């Protein structure tokens, strides 16, 4: 097979990596909260009922930011139900997931968990059944110092200082007809602008994210962004993108090519943002908040059926997907897009943190284990910091999934000047080994490779469900440094990271 040749030059940089791209998402859905992050009485539970075994796995994963409380859940959620004495909180119907919400965990409990775990919170307000008044009152509760109705309510509930929550989402997936309070682009654009305007009057320091399309295949994609941004451009800082990919039945080649659809999605939305900016004669740049993303293999009909067959339960177990080695490769390719577009993608939230389409799985009253998708996230979150180089690649490609040119080797090169470290990430989409030659122009390579880790299993359908350490990264020495270049033979269907000391 022809060698993939990559050229990366120190002077040609794509963008600085925002650590908030290493985010996750906690929604009141299934077992994400209850018996996920929170389980009073568990052997590892802290004084607030949160599982410390989960917290430890999250720390090792490198999560920086968590979006809360939804998701579809937020569009019929009254935040007031989740504050005050727990015993007096009402049990409410959650229409999104046909469950019973106990409201045992709400704003204050989540913030205790976030602060203890050094998590930067990203809160969503309800613009489905909610309104401008409810959005502003939640911001007042969280961020206003005191002396007003809602800020004093927070103080009475035991929190004297304001939380100072910086990032806020104006609703969730309002383009989707499955959403409670679904709106047209015009309807949503108007309320999002007015809610955002009012919130920034109360706290000008906050950043706001408006809803973009909930998937790239939506019929309204493109036109939705254009209409919404026409209304909200002056008050918003980010537009959100959501995307899940599945369909292993398409075959491995087409399945792994889907990360290219995600790349096209990001590029298209950036272009729409810039066109609206030019039309408005604005110097402001709207960036991307990719606040829901992941691999989703369970058909939505099955999800709905599992909810319909046993409705109105507390924290029912559904959509608890088990990921394969093959899924981990698509997941890695999707995540590498955030690095590749680091000049515009400033926040991202892998969905979800525990149990549903999750990196971390829990057993009620039992242990915790991690899925194959956990490892690409953890490696990038630990080592992909600094700037992304605008690397060029020339190598073999294949045709699949509607794309004429799918590179066999997907690649991203990161330079961490503070650590004087180059970090290379590769996904080999081929069922055969792939030769890669990377020229590192403008760098003085210091010594030998620091670390080389690969995630690979001979069975692409292998999971960690039964044998929890079946698919894990392994050190490998499949590389040679020669004449200022790094030569590597990537294993079939693998994800690999190589770290090199350089200045």
Describe it.
By secondary structure, this protein is α/β, with parallel strands linked by helices. 26% of the residues lie in helices and 27% in strands. The chain is built from ten helices and 26 strands. The chain has helices at 52-61, 107-116, 132-143, 149-156, 185-202, 223-232, 252-279, 300-309, 325-340, 374-383; strands spanning 4-9, 13-16, 23-25, 65-68, 92-94, 99-101, 120-125, 167-170, 207-210, 238-245, 287-295, 345-350, 360-362, 368-370, 387-389, 392-394, 397-400, 403-407, 409-416, 421-428, 434-441, 445-455, 474-475, 479-482, 485-490, 494-502. The strands form six sheets. It has an eight-stranded parallel beta barrel with strand order 3-4-7-8-9-10-11-12, surrounded by six helices. Strands 2-15-19-20-26-22-23 form a seven-stranded antiparallel sheet, with helices on one face. The chain is globular. The two termini are 32 Å apart. The model has no long low-confidence stretch (mean pLDDT 96).
Outline of the structure:
The chain is 26% helix and 27% strand. The two termini are 32 Å apart.
Please render the helix and strand layout as text.
Layout: E1 4-9, E2 13-16, E3 23-25, H1 52-61, E4 65-68, E5 92-94, E6 99-101, H2 107-116, E7 120-125, H3 132-143, H4 149-156, E8 167-170, H5 185-202, E9 207-210, H6 223-232, E10 238-245, H7 252-279, E11 287-295, H8 300-309, H9 325-340, E12 345-350, E13 360-362, E14 368-370, H10 374-383, E15 387-389, E16 392-394, E17 397-400, E18 403-407, E19 409-416, E20 421-428, E21 434-441, E22 445-455, E23 474-475, E24 479-482, E25 485-490, E26 494-502
Parallel strand pairs: 1-21, 3-4, 3-12, 4-7, 7-8, 8-9, 9-10, 10-11, 11-12
Antiparallel strand pairs: 1-16, 2-15, 5-6, 13-14, 15-19, 17-18, 19-20, 20-26, 21-25, 22-23, 22-26, 24-25
Helix pairs in contact: 3-4, 3-5, 5-6, 6-7, 7-9, 9-10
